[in-house]
């Protein structure tokens, strides 16, 4: 009998399919795990931006989480877009209630297009309620600046910001270097520095890269890989997708998560 590892994504839906729940499920499927989802919000968006957001009620999110945990218990959990403190509290309550493991928090605050995806007061709840339960936090430059209060313009700034976030949360931080000018080096800080080097790939279509990376990391953690190996494998997967250079839409387009299936 075939038994797959299971991963739950708690995030918002992207109607264009490039980010959020849709990107998470595609990533998990192509990384060999069974994907489940609890939706925090519906978004009307495409490659050019987000035009509308409809948040689910805390009660409905609570029901979704209970339904998943009571039946198909996840081996890892990825948390993406959570726009309000009320929803964050519901997630934190359930993670503690069911003793969830291998939790990756991608603190989604701004879409690739520049649209804001989180209420201001929710950032505080994110730091106080969710971060302490996580095994890894995966901010990009913009998110790390908000979380650390430090402007990031260099490798040295990356180290300082990651250290500040780690010291406040006591949780490992993967600060993604996709906004660096001449490289794509990511920094894992867990009391020590570990760098994951990467070359800059000339591709303007990066919609959903953060969702994809965090979901791939969660998938690898579910399969029993170490944190460092999970990040390495996820980064390799993302680089392969970027090198494909799928070009859809008139803005920052999505990735071709299942390219090898179609060939």
TrEMBL record:
Coiled-coil regions listed in the entry: none
Start and end residues of each Pyridoxamine kinase/Phosphomethylpyrimidine kinase domain: 14-256
A single cellular component GO annotation: cytosol
UniProt xrefs under InterPro entries: HMP/HMP-P_kinase_dom, PM/HMP-P_kinase-1, Ribokinase-like
EC number: 2.7.1.49, 2.7.4.7
One Pfam entry name: Phos_pyr_kin
Pathway, per record: Cofactor biosynthesis; thiamine diphosphate biosynthesis; 4-amino-2-methyl-5-diphosphomethylpyrimidine from 5-amino-1-(5-phospho-D-ribosyl)imidazole: step 3/3; Cofactor biosynthesis; thiamine diphosphate biosynthesis; 4-amino-2-methyl-5-diphosphomethylpyrimidine from 5-amino-1-(5-phospho-D-ribosyl)imidazole: step 2/3
Protein family: Belongs to the ThiD family.
Protein name: Hydroxymethylpyrimidine/phosphomethylpyrimidine kinase
């Amino acid at each position: 009998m075939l038994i797959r590892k299971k991963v739950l994504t708690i995030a918002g839906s992207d109607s264009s399919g490039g980010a959020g729940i849709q990107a998470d499920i595609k990533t998990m499927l192509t990384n060999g795990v069974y994907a489940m989802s609890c939706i925090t919000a519906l978004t009307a968006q495409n490659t050019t931006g987000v035009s509308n957001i409809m948040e689910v009620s805390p009660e409905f999110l609570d029901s979704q989480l209970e339904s998943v945990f009571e039946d198909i218990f996840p081996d890892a959990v990825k948390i993406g877009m959570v726009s309000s403190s009320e929803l964050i509290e519901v997630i934190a309550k359930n993670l503690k209630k069911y003793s969830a493991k291998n939790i990756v928090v991608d603190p989604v605050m701004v879409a690739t297009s520049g649209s804001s995806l989180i209420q201001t007061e929710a950032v505080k709840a994110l730091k106080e309620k969710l971060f302490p339960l996580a095994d890894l936090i995966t901010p990009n430059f913009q998110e790390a600046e908000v979380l650390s209060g430090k402007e990031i313009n260099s490798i040295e700034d990356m180290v300082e910001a990651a250290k500040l976030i780690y010291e406040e949360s006591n949780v490992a931080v993967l600060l993604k270097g996709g906004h660096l000018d001449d490289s794509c080096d990511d920094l894992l800080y867990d009391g020590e520095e570990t760098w994951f080097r990467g070359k800059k790939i000339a591709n303007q279509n990066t919609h959903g890269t953060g969702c994809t990376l965090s979901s791939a990391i969660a998938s690898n953690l579910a399969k029993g890989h170490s944190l460092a190996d999970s990040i390495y494998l996820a980064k390799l997967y993302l680089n392969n997708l970027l090198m494909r250079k799928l070009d859809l839409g008139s803005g920052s387009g999505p990735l071709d998560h299942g390219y090898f299936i179609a060939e």
